[in-house]
Amino acid sequence: MKNIIRQKTSIHTDIMELLNEQIFAEQHASSAYLAMASWCDQNGYLQSTEFFYKNALEEREHMMKIFKYILDNGGASFSPEVSNINHEFESIKDVVETALDMEISVTQKIYNLVKECRRVGDIGTEVFLQWFVTEQLEEEQKFRDILDMIHLMDGAAQQFIDERMKNYL
Amino acid sequence: MLTKFICFLFGINLNKDYFCSVMNMEILHNSSFFSSYQDVEKELFYIDFGHKVVSLTFHQFLHLKHKINRISSPRYLELVIQKRNLEILTLCNRKHIMILDVPQILDLQKLVQNTFQLFETESLVLS
């Protein structure tokens, strides 16, 4: 039997489905960072606003990378529908903690994708995802560093914490 | 050739073996309500919905997979059951409209999943 599907795409079709889920996760993260930027701006944390704008853009770039990878390899990408974005935070520390939780969740999804690629033998996609693995480790560490900084400056004016955020841009 | 034309024009549900021999198609999978076929020459997939046979390109088949996986998720099915117990499924850039109830949604999901699985398993065995 001739395998039409293999002739049309290099990506395993189950992996393609998971990559489309990852597109949603990256876009969700991008929208969540925009909401964080909005909260920071409304509460006077101007450096933090810039920091979250940059992160929103980075997440969108990650999303586009996966989107194009699927199309470049003969598959079908689906534009993600994003809803339920949280716009309410208690403090700047709460914002950063939420961001770290979100990054950990994205990392876990990438790990699951890599594991699935290995299980079904989609080596090409596994290699493509290596960049994301490294990137996620950096992202997580960035937010841990910010939380350490907030912890060290405990008791200081919130304005000083915001000033330090430009070191992470 | 004439049979082929009439079959498509009126969506006549022919005997599956006869259907395959007339249309140069290989049967891929049968579920309770539906069947999937491929035409290697034209590089097309076909789904026999009983009352209608729909031809799909590879990308249209991928779109169907994406849609059916979405509407067969437990959360979505719960909404379907609560509202009207029917779901409208558009295929091939809205060229076809299918109205499916919950058992048909689950059956179509199984058919699409198993059809793709057939090819992926073959790739794995060959590699």
State the main characteristics.
heterodimer, A: 169 residues, mainly alpha, Ferritin, 6 helices, 76% helix, B: 127 residues, alpha+beta, four-stranded antiparallel β-sheet, two-stranded antiparallel sheet, 5 helices, globular
Write a structural description:
The complex is a heterodimer of chains A (169) and B (127). Chain A is built from 6 helices and no strands. With 169 residues, chain A is mostly helical. Chain A has one domain: Ferritin, core subunit, four-helix bundle (Ferritin), CATH 1.20.1260.10. In chain A, helix 2 (13-42) runs antiparallel to helix 3 (46-72), helix 2 (13-42) runs antiparallel to helix 4 and helix 4 runs antiparallel to helix 5 (123-152). The model of chain A has no long low-confidence stretch (mean pLDDT 95). Chain B has 127 residues and is an alpha+beta fold. Chain B has one domain. In chain B, 52% of the residues lie in helices and 24% in strands. Chain B contains 5 helices and 6 strands; from the N terminus they run H-H-E-E-E-E-H-H-E-E-H. In chain B, the strands form 2 sheets. A 4-stranded antiparallel beta sheet of chain B has the order 1-2-3-4, sandwiched between helices. A two-stranded antiparallel sheet of chain B has the order 5-6. In chain B, helix 3 (58-71) crosses helix 5. The model of chain B has no long low-confidence stretch (mean pLDDT 85). At the A-B interface, helix 1 and helix 2 of A face helix 3 and helix 5 of B.
How does CATH name the architecture of chain A? Up-down Bundle
How is the main sheet of chain A built? none
Q: What is the β-strand count of chain B? A: 6
Low-confidence spans of chain B: none
- Treating each run of at least 4 consecutive H or I residues as one helix, how many helices of chain A? 6
Task: Report the CATH topology name of chain A.
Answer: Ferritin
Largest sheet of chain B: 4 strands, antiparallel
Distance between the termini of chain A: 55 Å
* Low-confidence residue ranges of chain A: none
Written as H for each helix and E for each strand, in order along the chain, the element string of chain B is HHEEEEHHEEH
CATH superfamily of chain A: Ferritin, core subunit, four-helix bundle
CATH class of chain A: Mainly Alpha
Helix content of chain A: over 70%
Order the strands across the largest sheet of chain B as they lie in space. 1-2-3-4
Number of domains of chain A: 1
Q: By helix and strand content of chain B, what is the structural category?
A: alpha+beta
Number of domains of chain B: 1
The rounded Rg of chain B comes to 15 Å
